[in-house]
Amino acid sequence: MKIAILPGDGIGTEIVGEAQKLLALLREQGVAVETEIAPIGGAGYDAARHPLPDATLALARAADAVLLGAVGGPRYDTLPRELRPEQGILGIRKALSLFANLRPALLYPELAAASTLKPEVVAGLDIVIVRELTGDIYFGEPRGRRKTAAGDDEGFDTMRYSVPEIERIARVGFETARKRARRLTSVDKANVLDTSILWREVVTRLAAQYPDVTLSHMYVDNAAMQLVRNPRGFDTIVTGNLFGDILSDEASMLAGSIGMLPSASLDANGKGLYEPIHGSAPDIAGKNVANPLATILSVAMMFRHTFARPDVAERIEAAVRGALRQGLRTADIAQPGEAVVGTRAMGDAVVAALRAQ
Ligand code: NAD
C-alpha cells in the first residue's frame, strides 16, 4: 500500500503530520503502508517553480493512493493563473483521471450542537454525495465571451454529459449505496435541461442492474431544500459536477465544521486522492489550532475505497469517535465554555485511542 503524501500549504503540513502519526502506528501494528512526501501547490512552486512539479506527479502516479493536505496562501495570490496553487490540485485530478468525488456528511452525535440546524433535525445525519468531477458545464466547450446580434457582450458555457460519462458515475453511485442503506437519489434538473433528461434516462436504465438499491430522482432545487428540511431522508446522492459542487458544500454545513469532513476522488480502478474538504486556512496556519480530524478521516476513506480494508477504516473512525467521546475539541468544534485542545493534542488522542483498541 503505497501512499504519496502531499501536505501542501498553510495548515496542510500540520494536519497531514497528524495523519502520518496514525499511519506510523498502523505500520507498527503490521499494516503494510509505505509513504513518501512531495510538495504541491505553493510549496511546489517554492520548490520547483510549479504547483505540480514533475517529481510530485511521478510519485502520485506510482502510488496506490494520494493523501493531500490543502493548498493556497496569500503569498501565491499574485502569481499568474497557471502557476497558482489550485492548479496543482486541478492538474493532479486530471492527470490521474479522478472522475468520482465522494463526500460524506456525517454528524457525530457528540457534535450535534455544532450544526447550524436544530439537533433533532440533524442528529443521525449520514449522507454520501457522489459528484461527477471531470465533465459538465465546468469543462464543456464551446465557452467564452462574444457579442450578441444587438452588439451586447455576453458570456456563455456549455453543459454536456455523454452516456459513458453518466454511466460510470452512476455506477459509483449504485456501488456506494450498496455498501450503505441501499437508497440512491439521483439529482438533476430534468424539467428544464436536455443534459438532465439524458442523465435521468441513463441512471434509470442502469438501475435494472442494481435491484437491491432503491433509486429515486429529485430536481436539484428540491434537493437543496430537502437537505436543510429533512437531511436524514437521504442516504446516497449521485449528481453532476455543477449540482454536486453546490449541494456538497451545503451538506457539509449540516455536519458542523468543515474541519470534520473528508473526501475521496477516485479513478475507474479505485485509485484515489484523499483530502479534507477545507482549504489551507492561512488565518490559523502554524498556530497548532487546526482540526486534523478531516484529514485523519480521509485516511479512513483511503483504507475503505482504495485498499479494500474496511476493518482498518472502521478502527480509525472508532478512534476519532473515541477522542470526541473523551471530550476533546479543537476550537472549530468547541461549544462556548468547552475546553479546547490543539492540532497535535487531538492527533495524539486519536493515535492513543487507536493503540488502545
Ligand atoms: P478554508 O477552508 O481554508 O478556510 C475557511 C475557514 O474555515 C477559515 O476560517 C479557516 O480557519 C477555517 N478552517 C478550515 N479548515 C479548518 C480546520 N481544519 N480546522 C479549523 N478551522 C478550519 O477556505 P478559504 O479561507 O476560503 O481559503 C483559504 C485558502 O485555501 C485559499 O488560498 C484557497 O484558495 C485555498 N483552498 C484550498 C482548497 C484545497 O486545497 N482543496 C480548498 C478550498 C480553498
Question: How are the secondary structure elements laid out?
Answer:
Layout: E1 2-8, H1 12-28, E2 34-37, H2 42-48, H3 54-62, E3 65-70, H4 86-95, E4 100-106, H5 119-122, E5 126-132, E6 144-147, E7 153-156, H6 163-178, E8 183-188, H7 194-207, E9 214-219, H8 220-229, E10 236-239, H9 241-254, E11 262-266, E12 272-276, H10 293-305, H11 310-325, H12 343-356
Parallel strand pairs: 1-2, 1-3, 3-12, 5-10, 8-9, 8-10
Antiparallel strand pairs: 4-5, 4-11, 6-7, 11-12
In short:
The chain has 357 residues and is an alpha/beta fold. It is built from twelve helices and twelve strands. The chain has two domains: 1-99 and 267-357, Isopropylmalate Dehydrogenase, CATH 3.40.718; 104-260, Isopropylmalate Dehydrogenase.
Bound molecules: nicotinamide-adenine-dinucleotide
Report Rg.
20 Å
Mean pLDDT: 95
Corresponding CATH superfamily of the largest domain: Isopropylmalate Dehydrogenase
The name of the CATH topology of the largest domain is: Isopropylmalate Dehydrogenase
- Count the DSSP helices: 12
Distance between the termini: 22 Å
Category from helices, strands and their pairing? alpha/beta
Number of domains: 2
Notable characteristics:
Isopropylmalate Dehydrogenase; 357 residues; 18% strand; ten-stranded mixed sheet; alpha/beta; 2 domains; globular; two-stranded antiparallel ribbon; binds nicotinamide-adenine-dinucleotide
